Amino acid sequence: MPSSPFCAPLIAEARAWCVACAPAEGVGVIVRTPVGLRVHPLRNVSADPRSGFEVDPLEWARVEDQAVVFFHSHPNGAAGLSARDRAALPRSIEHWVFAERLSRHRFVGGQWIEFTGKTK
User: Fold this and answer.
1) How many domains does the chain have?
2) Which CATH number belongs to the domain containing residue 97 in this structure?
3) The sheet that has 27-33: what strands, in order across it?
4) Four-CA torsion 24, 79, 116, 91, nearest 10 degrees
5) What is the span of the domain harbouring residue 31?
6) If you average pLDDT over every residue of the chain, what do you get?
7) Residue 1 lies inside a defined structural domain of this protein
8) Residue 83 domain-assigned?
9) Percentage with pLDDT > 90 across the chain
């Protein structure tokens, strides 16, 4: 099992899911399972999936306890969190945004911060 959720194969798989969803925003989670970490794609049920995402609450409830990273894409936008993202994202886990680059964020001290971490 990888020592962290940031290993290159998981990033590549999450990015591939987001690319496959374009022009809509892709969304998913990295979940901890008995056999290790894996990418779990989620359906974007937003009324306007090209400019935002929404996850079915029942689908989120099935993976929430195992989620270690939440990710989504900005296929036509910048890396980083939008105001809508900042308001809607779960604050207890890391968040990745795939755009022209990967940006990684954590909620610390009452605010979302972008950080640089090493990938394995």
Assistant:
1) 1
2) 3.40.140.10
3) 36-42, 27-33, 67-73, 94-98, 102-108, 111-115
4) -60
5) 8-115
6) 89
7) no
8) yes
9) 70
Is residue 99 situated within a structural domain?
yes
pTM of this structure: 0.88
Q: Is the peptide bond before 57 cis (omega within 30 degrees of 0)?
A: no
Q: Report if residue 3 sits inside a domain.
A: no
- Unique residue bearing structure tokens 């394995």: 120
Q: What confidence tier does 117 reach under pLDDT thresholds 50, 70, 90? A: low
pLDDT digits (tens, 9 = 90+) for 74-105: 998 888 898 888 888 888 999 999 998 999 99
Amino acid at 25: E
Rounded distance, CA 64 to CA 90, Å?
9
Rounded to whole angstroms, how far apart are CA atoms 106 and 86? 10
